[in-house]
User: Fold these one by one.
Assistant:
Number 1:
Amino acid sequence: MNQHNALARPSWPSPHPITDGADDPASARPAEDASLVSVRDMLAVLHANRRMLALWVLLCLALAGAYLYSTPPEYLASTQIILEPRRQFAGAQDAGPGSYPPTLDSAQAESQIQVVKSERILRFVFTTLDLAHTPEFSTHGRGVRDWLRDRLSGLISSPSREAAPALAPLSEEARAFQAFSDRVSVRRIGQSYVLEISYRSLERQQAAKLANSITAAYIRDQIELKASAAQRGSEYLQGRITDVQAEQAAAAEAVRLGTVPDMRLPASDARVISAALEPLGKAYPQTMLVLGFAAVAGLLIGLSIAAIRYGLDRTLHSPKDVWRSAGMACLGLIPRRSGGSRRRLQRPLIALDEILIHPDSKVSAALRVSRTAILAANPTSRHHAIGFVAWSHREGTSTIASNFAHLVAAAGDRVTLIDGHLHQPGLSQALAPHAESGLNELLSCDSTKTELQPVPLSEALSFVPAVRSGTTSDQNIYLGSPEMQIILVAMRQERSVIIDLPPLSVSSDAQAIGPHLDGLVLVIEAHRTTSDEVAMAVTALRSTKTRILGIILNKTTAGQPDTRAAGRNRWDRFRRHD
């Protein structure tokens, strides 16, 4: 036993001495604020939710990929023009002796942007090039983005049901012109007088052609205004009118051909400085931008869900959670058995004599650590009387109590293991299925001198079943009776006593017998037992001045490849697991 004690150390040493049941529970709690979340806690949460985070990122990337696959690529072509107001002639009638060349202010420059986007300019290009029957502007030739935009705009700007019948549906030509207009964009470059006219199309050549046609149409419109002024004014000669008409014809021809005029047009207030060229790559949708946005969105959604789950999760996962919730030491971390089948109905289970079957396993090593910590908490007694209890069923008290009894017996001490589950004697069914008497029969006798013959499990370990095989216990029997106290005193004269007690949520037997023991060990299941349940268990035990030796965190997933929360094991086979 000394060799085992020298190698085994408690997994979570208590920074404060463990107090007995008379102490105030609030005084045993640490000074640190339980609401503070350390970086290690957040990293643990991210590690536990890494599959969910990866799933969200992959889902968003898949949606982005579907969008990119279903949306046809669009190409953007741009032209640049500079606004140059025509200088006044020195001999003009309205030119004074101190007149200066006219200039453009910001308001005039911005107004020219609206002129380029006006229906008059775009309608001329639309009609000249006969774009009404172009497949690009039909419903079946548009992308997902255009379809969604049409649906959303229809929902936002839809009239009331009473006014809806009075509105005539848009014609195909009107829809085509609207689609054409939506693809035109005009912007001013900085504070300069340069305007950039852009057009996006599903085809490279079409994008460049229409961008040039719109630019030429704007030049034509400027020339047409000057031609009208020339015809009305008396300051221009007939020759000047002929030149302007020639320039107007050249601009109209440029609109039809999808180019810009290659001749100087002095009658226009704008001059082309850069014609639209065929784009080399698509402009929309932007693949890297969409994929990057999808990855960031998936990561943010996953982090939000992980944070919400962490905030709403009241279960205990680590010794730090146990210390924050109950203010007492975690005596050991019993891992879930690794390996074996991963299916739900065939989960790997821990044996009641795991310490004997697999002495070199991680589970056995953790059980030895727990044994050392429990015995160190009660060093004065030669023969120990220790109970194991949980808040609810299937948290592993029977497994831990049985293995603890085997460990104490293997160290040379004589031990009696008692099944205190009088109404659900699963441990008795596993270790003594043919018992002829049990604790129920002993407590039912009027004479306390009736001797009980324990079932021998090994040379130093014996077992007391809860009931005789094939019978049920008396509902009026409880473990806090005087007869049970006499039995405990008699047994402790020559051996240690380990009692597997029923859960606190269904029975008060642990509260009744707890004051007559050296202490109780509270067993909780990681990822299942909540902090509220632990608080209720501690309060219930301390209400009867029961000494709580500490807490064992059972079925942990630390170091295991499967980080999912421990589920509720509905297949209770007590020969292998409690």
Number 2:
Amino acid sequence: MSGAQAPVDPTSTAAWSRLTTLAGTLEPDLRGWFAEDPARVGRFTHEVADLRVDLSKNLLTDTVLGALLELAREVGVEARRDAMLRGERVNATEDRAVLHTALRLPREASLVVDGTDVVPEVHEVLDRVFAFAEQVRSGAWTGATGRRIETVVNIGIGGSDLGPVMAYEALAPYADGPACRFLSNIDPTDAATTLAGLDPETTLFVVSSKTFGTLETLTNARLCRSWLLDGLPEDVRDTAVARHFVAVSTALDKVADFGIDPQNAFGFWDWVGGRYSLDSAIGTSLVLAVGPAAFRALLAGMHAVDEHFRTAPLEANVPVLMGLLNVWYSDFLGCRTHAVLPYAQLLHRFPAYLQQLTMESNGKSVRWDGSPVTAGTGEVFWGEPGTNGQHAFYQLLHQGTQVVPADFIAFAQPSYPLTDTVDGREQDVHELLLANFVAQTRALAFGKTAEEVRAEGTDEAVVPARVFAGNRPTTSIMAPRLTPSVLGQLVALYEHITFTQGVVWGIDSFDQWGVELGKQLATELGPALAGDRDVLAAQDPSTRGLVDYYLRNRS
């Protein structure tokens, strides 16, 4: 299957018509469905690697599931998946293969793309990253004054930031190397606060930019270089950049011009999209923090889910099922947002990571052949961890007029076990967290009727305010513990969910042209903000007014 081959119009399929009819006649009744079907949980619960995924509290019947699976077959999900995994150029608008899955293939595997086996190349770069990380972690690599590296600052944006920072936060219990900070925003406040309190003699910078030309990243890199040189003794400044900066880039000439030794530049390939690059050299800062063994475990977890996605039949293929459910909700039941709610504080950046993965991938209005989409695409992903969200936005989830499908994520074992003592009795605090996790999905699914509210002796005047409609869909994902492998499994799971939805909609989930126009205009407007009145005069009235306000108030 060629990347440029016309996609199947999902709305033209028999399955789409069937799903439209089913949506129009659906009367969700999770209470009734569970009562009538003791096998429902077992039938709608699946295992993938270490993850237990319970789909039973979704607005799903066997008939709906059958139609969704038929839709997947009619639009060619399996064929498109196989084409991607073979290295065909499924990124049509950029004429590229899409092979983030190759980044976690084991060393003994083989995958030939355009006549070259990419697996040895992948492992050559990984080996170089691991060797460098071991030097830094052991103290063999030092700064310009001979002192050990204590802090790593990752300079990147988008996929070069969101993945590494999410994983670093998630794997904090495994971090036994230098502490990491992350600098992404071009707002100078980000650079100032990131560098605050650091010692130039013990700080290492990882500049992550494939082209070494990303505006935000290079601006921040220059700011950090100036900060470094200003803070070091004068006699070491000539060699300082080479000792305190490494690059994740393939533009070796630009790397060298910056002052970084090209031997300390770690590359990746054009078939690795930014938001799919955590498992490439983009993860260098993470390797420095947690070590090669933990990073290998992360890759192994990703690969385990890749293999499940590649081999499992559609009826038991977890990412396919979850992707199809998202299509069911967004295109047939009118749900435009999707919450991800990790009951694990260490995953507090996971929803933000998924925002880029899902919305940059599937926020498209044309298909991969350039024709307009024929159905709604993408959802707005959002979320917060654990009980924090309960005290913020769960009111809307339970009793609002919008139905928001939600993924709940939890772990049987805490990363930091603690007990509380109340009235002389010890309470496992993780049990309190998990009680909330279970209670929320139950409450959302089954609600509370007016009769149940009245039975508690509630004043009739407030009964309506205390009724919970229920039938709010949730997916529960559990694992024994948040390990590097399990984190990798979660990342790969959502990558393939995103892919499945993209195939159904016929869109290229691997380009991101929508981010380009604003960047282009920002470059053009720079002179106006610097006071160029001719450039300013060429702008629209609103833009002129905003820039004029800035110029008046900046002084």
